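Per-residue structure
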Amino acid sequence: MSHPVRLAINGATGRMGHALLQLVKGDARFALVVATCSSGSPVLGQRVYAGEDELRYTHGWPEPGTLDVVIDFSGPAGLAEALTYCESNGVALVTGTTGLDLTFAQRLTASAQRIALLRAANFSLGVAVLTRLLRQAAAALPNWDLDIVEAHHNRKADAPSGTALALGEAAAAARGTSLAESAVYSREGLVGPREHGTIGFAVVRGGDIVGEHEALLMGEGERIELVHRATDRSIFARGALEAAHWISGRAAGDYDLDTLLSERAGH
């Protein structure tokens, strides 16, 4: 692409939005055109970068032909507005918004027939590589026991993490099953011997841990440990920007980070 990717950040006042704003500011690959916030936000109408330019937080969308890609980390309602705009104007969409119901997920799948769409629950490229490696290992070693251990800060409310569950789903699919059939989420008391083919989960919560995920594949006399540790939350914003740059100008389709990695690897 000859010109910088013309970018909108939807949900720019959230944690991910803020990280994206800081990173895109110094990235010559992008020209930030729009930074959206909710209609009731106290920063609505204020400058995005204090004293530097006229870019201001908005709750609206620009004229057709203004954008190449929208990065969305808003919420179901904000994503719905962004999706409508992208569909109407042929703009690519990268979204990490979670908590979507089945109907909305089906709408996204249908939208991928009209626009280039890339969605992920975790935009860490390292986690994407971990997922790929686990998928390969689980398929190659179908009779080995598999547990997934994850650790996060003491403020995280859900367990296991969405990333841990996604890793489990990838491993289960590689073995021709699903988490609904194979997951074990707790072990306490006299639970008896491990049932063959199960995928176990263990959870750690404490301190300020950004995020750690470990997959243990355990055989007779040997084991494999696949580990990813996040030390800076900006990795998720960096991954989203990589995805936005990669997807700009692509044909309509339902893409994911594994597609990006496959292209980089040359296959």
In short: Residues 5-119+234-265 form a domain with the Rossmann fold fold (CATH 3.40.50.720). Residues 125-140 form the longest helix (16 residues). The chain has two domains: 5-119+234-265, 125-230.
